[in-house]
Amino acid sequence: MAISGMGDLFRVRAILICPTGNNLYVVHELSNTLTQQILPVLGSGQTSQFVATQSIIPPGASNTTLAAGELLISTVNCMYPKEYLYATNRNDPNSAGDAISIFSTNPLTLVAQVRTG
């Protein structure tokens, strides 16, 4: 699915609606970005509000071969009281493997990037 008017660089790969709020998170496959929007109350007639965008490209990598993959959100519980987003990429030629970018959710902030290899 592509976002109207945004071209192929913003092709949507994964969408996640935060279970603990009204935030919508989208991973864009070709631009390797994660965006956050606030969803309005259903029936309010308002449109969603863009909040933030973050790159999921690991340091030293090029956007020419990477493609965003999956988007997951952690479950908040007594052992893990903070919510995190996990955005993956694929096709990274780095010998250390693809990267998983870990973000705190509010505000959307990169916490860490780890390699899978």
List its traits:
117 residues, mainly beta, four-stranded antiparallel beta sheet
Q: Please state the CA-atom Rg, rounded to the nearest Å.
A: 15 Å
The helix/strand class is mainly beta
Shape: globular
Mean pLDDT: 84
Number of domains: 1
Helix content: under 10%
Quick description:
This protein is mainly β and 117 residues long. The chain has strands spanning 12-17, 23-28, 33-38, 49-55, 67-73, 84-90, 99-105, 108-115.
Helix/strand layout:
Blueprint lengths: L11 E6 L5 E6 L4 E6 L10 E7 L11 E7 L10 E7 L8 E7 L2 E8 L2
In words, what does this structure look like?
The chain contains no helices and eight strands. The protein has one domain. It is mostly beta strands and 117 residues long. Mean pLDDT is 84; it is low at 1-9. The radius of gyration is 15 Å and the shape is globular. Strands 1-2-3-4 form a four-stranded antiparallel beta sheet, with no helix packed on it. Strands 5-6-7-8 form a four-stranded antiparallel beta sheet, with no helix packed on it. It has strands at 12-17, 23-28, 33-38, 49-55, 67-73, 84-90, 99-105, 108-115. 0% of the residues lie in helices and 46% in strands.
